[in-house]
Amino acid sequence: MVLGRGLLGLRSVSALGAACARRGLGPALLGVLLHHTDCRKSSTMDQGTLRVELLPALTDNYMYLIIDGETKEAAIVDPVQPQKVVETVRKHGVKLTTVLTTHHHWDHAGGNEKLVKLEPGLKVCGGDDRIGALTHKVTHLSTLQVGSLNVKCLSTPCHTSGHICYFVSKPGSSEPPAVFTGDTLFVAGCGKFYEGTADEMYKALLEILGRLPPDTRVYCGHEYTINNLKFARHVEPNNTAIQEKLAWAKEVEKEFSGGVNTGGSRECSKTPSLFSPQGEDQRLATSLHLDLPPDPYLASHQQLKDHLLPPLVTFGGGTGTLGSEGPACGC
């Protein structure tokens, strides 16, 4: 976005949102700045009874409309742009009953209050009292129903202390389930540790999300794929799998007008944050005089990414960063 990144000199629209929040300007002003900035296309992933409409929002966010094909009941994940949600609900002719909020950051929960005004009676779910318009606070392994679909809440604290991922399945069906990971897991990356530790992120990725069925489709909260893979390539320049995945991501981005998140199988094997601090990344950390804990190894990658962001990548007219975001969100 030219206005957010160039004229205002901020790293991203997420940083712009955080700056607005600190000054008490709220999302209304930001909405003016973001008008017509998102050119990514929406798309529908049909998994049988479970249908998922991917709705690009802001500049790199995703909202998701979850539709039960049997009952035509629907839930929305992180509706930061509520008018877009309402228009999509009407297009599909479904009944929106539930809001699934992954965490309280404005770019995920900032549309809740407006949405409940547009669609009165919604059940607004989340794991944090800081979430706007919250009506149903959930905890780890809480369950919800959206029509015939089962929603299991998975507590994944770290990015924020109250972060929840939502695992959606059709009981008794062979249809692949889906998980909506917010800012915990991205394609080829994970969220920043704003309110947690590397130990907590390790548990979230390996012990909670990593134990979901292998055919689970992943729907993450941001489009950071290419930036994450560029960081991975920098850390492991000789890793051919990363090079191949980056080439694939660039092709998909062209085809889908800037969106790589295709709801494919889990990407843990492509996530550099899950790698052990050995080889290239360990040597790089040593040269930068970073103190790395012996275990878990997630902390080392987060330190490396934070330390190396500014000079690593250039975009078109100027220098960019590798997916780093302001205080509101990020990978």
TrEMBL record:
<feature type="signal peptide">
    <location>
        <begin position="1"/>
        <end position="15"/>
    </location>
</feature>
<dbReference type="GO" id="GO:0046872">
    <property type="term" value="F:metal ion binding"/>
</dbReference>
<dbReference type="InterPro" id="IPR001279">
    <property type="entry name" value="Metallo-B-lactamas"/>
</dbReference>
<comment type="pathway">
    <text>Secondary metabolite metabolism; methylglyoxal degradation; (R)-lactate from methylglyoxal: step 2/2.</text>
</comment>
<dbReference type="InterPro" id="IPR032282">
    <property type="entry name" value="HAGH_C"/>
</dbReference>
<keyword id="KW-0479">Metal-binding</keyword>
<dbReference type="Pfam" id="PF16123">
    <property type="entry name" value="HAGH_C"/>
</dbReference>
<keyword id="KW-0809">Transit peptide</keyword>
<dbReference type="InterPro" id="IPR017782">
    <property type="entry name" value="Hydroxyacylglutathione_Hdrlase"/>
</dbReference>
<dbReference type="Pfam" id="PF00753">
    <property type="entry name" value="Lactamase_B"/>
</dbReference>
<dbReference type="InterPro" id="IPR035680">
    <property type="entry name" value="Clx_II_MBL"/>
</dbReference>
<comment type="similarity">
    <text>Belongs to the metallo-beta-lactamase superfamily. Glyoxalase II family.</text>
</comment>
<dbReference type="InterPro" id="IPR036866">
    <property type="entry name" value="RibonucZ/Hydroxyglut_hydro"/>
</dbReference>
<keyword id="KW-0378">Hydrolase</keyword>
<feature type="domain" description="Metallo-beta-lactamase">
    <location>
        <begin position="60"/>
        <end position="222"/>
    </location>
</feature>
<dbReference type="GO" id="GO:0005759">
    <property type="term" value="C:mitochondrial matrix"/>
</dbReference>
<dbReference type="GO" id="GO:0019243">
    <property type="term" value="P:methylglyoxal catabolic process to D-lactate via S-lactoyl-glutathione"/>
</dbReference>
<comment type="function">
    <text>Thiolesterase that catalyzes the hydrolysis of S-D-lactoyl-glutathione to form glutathione and D-lactic acid.</text>
</comment>
<keyword id="KW-0732">Signal</keyword>
<keyword id="KW-0862">Zinc</keyword>
<dbReference type="GO" id="GO:0004416">
    <property type="term" value="F:hydroxyacylglutathione hydrolase activity"/>
</dbReference>
<comment type="subunit">
    <text>Monomer.</text>
</comment>
<protein>
    <recommendedName>
        <fullName>Hydroxyacylglutathione hydrolase, mitochondrial</fullName>
        <ecNumber>3.1.2.6</ecNumber>
    </recommendedName>
</protein>
<feature type="region of interest" description="Disordered">
    <location>
        <begin position="258"/>
        <end position="280"/>
    </location>
</feature>
<dbReference type="GO" id="GO:0006749">
    <property type="term" value="P:glutathione metabolic process"/>
</dbReference>
<keyword id="KW-0963">Cytoplasm</keyword>
<keyword id="KW-0496">Mitochondrion</keyword>
